[in-house]
What we know:
With 233 residues, the protein is of the alpha/beta class. Helix content is 27%, strand content 31%. The chain contains 7 helices and 13 strands.
Amino acid sequence: MIKEAIILAGGLGTRLRSVVADLPKCLADVNGRPFLFYVLQYLKRNGIKKFIFSLGYKSSEVEAFIKLNLLKADYSVVVEQDPLGTGGGIQLAMDKTKDSHCIVVNGDTYFDVNLQDFSLLHINEDADCTISLKPMENFSRYGSVEIDDNYTIVSFKEKQFIESGFINGGVYALNKATFLQHNFASKFSFEKDYLEPNVGSKKLKGFIQDEYFIDIGIPEDYKKAQTELIAHI
């Protein structure tokens, strides 16, 4: 099983300003605790032993929280001096990884994926990248993802109303060597510059799980998190 995780926790939380003070999104208060607390509990519960944080906006505040909550854990922090995009943040954090594969999660999204099963599929399929997929009905906020019978991602579709489909749940498993061999610039989009160009590749896989999912990027879902996430500590 994969034991290392990169946590992308440098977001500004611009869309939450109406309900959250001037904080990074990952520190938004959810039922008396920063959202990042719930993400870390999930990762620890799923066997993650090393935590690598990719930080940016108000990084010192996030670091203070990490020190209090991971006192005896193995963790590292990298800080973007300028915004590097999702891909650049992952690439920077990979310098701190030791194993050949790592998990990547977003600090403002919670998806209760079983990481043992997720890791097994990723490794058994010899994937370069495996994406967590959440089944959803009647949605338009997210783009949709199509997968074939061999777990291969065959398309990403733009945001539009979909009666039934899969969304990208924001949990990834990455093969470190094959990711870094692309020699990306320091700033790039993980989605646009890495995932989309590899659609149809047998090395880009999808893992479907119908488990609890929430993205607190908008006030409506942030409000839902106040009552829902307490059940997932």
